[in-house]
């Protein structure tokens, strides 16, 4: 195996690296099945300690000049950029995505720190017109200790876009990364130290997720829970957080519609779909999952799509092809079950659909990038998130029909459509019940724009000017001379 870079494997609490009270567990490379390293494990006790230290650090950090907070966050962003190759290699080895995609994610993490560094200095309140001798002010105050729980699919950026605005606002944090990908989180923590982040301001705990989650959600000292992951776990954490009335943000599952209208640039639509769908092997909450194509252009679009599929290659993460492995065997079985269910009910596989045969893929959960046609509502894939490299094609005829179909989902995270007709663009951007709409583009997530969903995709926004507001409360100050 490619040598795994040196990264601390302990919990990071109050600026110290500590062993946990539980037995260490192994982390594996999903491309090869090889063990990468052991990782220390804590639990309720260490989480409570980290929360107490974060609380201890809160007053000092909140009182730190915003300009100084911004300087440290910029420093973290710059260190991430300086360490980009190393951080990307760590990510590819523990998560499996192709190396160049890891580099893009690491750069995106740096962007989150730089963007939010500036937001620290722009958290403007308001002066409200008031009667004579009175002054009405609104100021934004940091909430306090934040508990952040993140998934494995973007093991760096899902942390960055929570931590950067939280720290910018003056909050302190306890982070619980996903078990499959702790090293990306710990490698960031090493940079926090190098950037001079004061002790206790950011802490990282690993261990049994239900124990850590329970402590974070029920400890009264924690004032905010920010979670990215499955809808099921999000609902549980939301319920648990109710006991201590925390402010909560939930970035949950998605099942994005992707609509190709008859006036679309079909080349643009086909290449955009292939690029976006196979990013991170389809293990993306905003991945297009239902591809609606208008009947009159369906044949031509499908031909272009299949042509574009010729550029899609499977490889070990380190080989930097289009797609790597899925995260684990369970994920592969889920994709295969969706394909079997669909073909049993009449769908046709036009491309891929099997495990790749090359011997080098034998030890990882690889599956060929797939195009499947003839998807109907009675198939699991129509309503259930795939989280894998599958393009399911659905035919439609009228605008009304596709508007209704696109919104027929419990999720409401990302949506996309391709059209050059301004009236359609205006009408559909408003009709889609989704937190984000990409029109003739799949690039809907950047530091500058608010990211988040509606319905069972959750609530709260990350990035944009909205992001930092998840970590503050508005205080109204009414003054009489
Ligand atoms: P997951 O199983 O919900 O896990 C996410 C995180 O929650 C991990 O850190 C996990 O820890 C932790 N967790 C699991 N059970 C928990 C519990 N009982 N209490 C506290 N924490 C618990 O989701 P996933 O499989 O990693 O990620 C895939 C899902 O995330 C998909 O549905 C995807 O759509 C969604 N996602 C959403 C967004 C968004 O922005 N909306 C972005 C990316 C992904 P362990 O790893 O230790 O189990």
TrEMBL record:
Query: Matching Pfam families, A to Z?
Result: Aldedh (PF00171)
Signal sequence interval, chain numbering: none
What is an example of a GO molecular function annotated in this UniProt entry? Answer: succinate-semialdehyde dehydrogenase (NAD+) activity
Q: Which GO terms describe its biological process?
A: gamma-aminobutyric acid catabolic process
**Record flagged with keyword Transport:** no
Q: Where does the Aldehyde dehydrogenase domain start and stop, copy by copy?
A: 17-477
Gene3D superfamilies in UniProt: Aldehyde Dehydrogenase, Chain A, domain 1, Aldehyde Dehydrogenase, Chain A, domain 2
Task: Report whether Oxidoreductase shows up as a keyword of the record.
Answer: yes
Alphabetically ordered keywords of this record: Oxidoreductase
Q: What class of enzyme is it?
A: oxidoreductase
Q: What is its EC number?
A: 1.2.1.16
Return the InterPro entries for the record.
Answer: Ald_DH/histidinol_DH, Ald_DH_C, Ald_DH_N, Aldehyde_DH_dom, Aldehyde_DH_Superfamily
Say which domain of life the source belongs to. Bacteria
> What family name appears in the similarity comment?
Belongs to the aldehyde dehydrogenase family.
Q: Which PANTHER family match?
A: SUCCINATE-SEMIALDEHYDE DEHYDROGENASE, MITOCHONDRIAL
What protein name does the entry list?
Succinate-semialdehyde dehydrogenase
Organism, by scientific name, is Candidatus Kurthia intestinigallinarum
Q: Which gene encodes it?
A: gabD
